[in-house]
Amino acid sequence: MNSNIKALDTGFVLRADKIEKHFANIEVLRGISLEAKRGDVISLIGASGSGKSTFLRCLNFLEIPTGGTVTIRGETHQASDALSRSRASKQKLRQLRREVGMVFQSFNLWPHMTAAENVMEGPVRVLKEPPKAARSRALDLLARVGLSERADYRPSQLSGGQQQRVAIARALAMNPDVLLFDEPTSALDPELVGEVLAVMTDLAKEGRTMLIVTHEIAFARDVSSKMIFLRKGLVEEEGPPRDLIASPKSEELQRFLARMR
Ligand code: ADP
Ligand code: MG
What we know:
Layout (H helix, E strand, L loop, with lengths): L2 H8 L1 E12 L2 E12 L3 E5 L6 H8 L7 E6 L2 E4 H5 L3 H13 E4 L11 H11 L5 H14 L15 H13 L5 E5 L7 H16 L3 E5 L3 H7 L2 E6 L2 E6 L1 H6 L4 H10 L1
Parallel strand pairs: 3-8, 3-9, 6-7, 7-8
Antiparallel strand pairs: 1-2, 1-4, 4-5, 9-10
């Protein structure tokens, strides 16, 4: 059976099953599971050091989990695949990374390339798109994030909010099934946060499947269909964001939310 059909059958775009991650003798993730259906927007909250970034990185195997599996489009990935040097395993890993896009706190744009070149790079190098077509698509994507006028600027000539919007366009250019955001507005001056959140809200409305690590609780409440509170490498509490925020059950979440106010 074709993997697209399998993914539709289960109804899930992404499923993480009991993800564990140890660094030497530190247990950072202690068995985290989640399922995202197409169009789900899931927010991940939790104190610094609770494992949010490590979990996101495990979902596309930027960090190889020490236990558990990630299933996307009906294909299941586990550590043994990623550690194997076989051609099939490497191909599978490339496929996973293509299907799961990532936007980082620190933008991570290539400084020597213009905005348009940053967006085209993946499609040209990885997807082997002809440069002309890739550039035209890059310009469309930059227009979607409100940056038509900035296509030929380098990152150093752009504000933080503009750089992050280029980074979002770059992630979209790979047509990922799922987009992961790791505190996308934490490095921004307060007056630039809104423009990035507005772009993310549009993506959510378009039905993109997204996982968002954020400290912007009001944004997370408004945009996400589900909220997960991580604590010490475990899911402490999860549910509809309004319920979690209005009536947190665990003392830890109560304290965390009180600190956010
Ligand atoms: P969060 O994003 O929630 O702040 P992280 O996932 O960055 O948390 O980190 C969770 C814990 O894992 C922290 O205690 C951190 O020090 C540890 N950690 C993360 N990456 C590494 C690493 N490469 N080596 C050792 N410890 C790590
Ligand atoms: Mg983090």
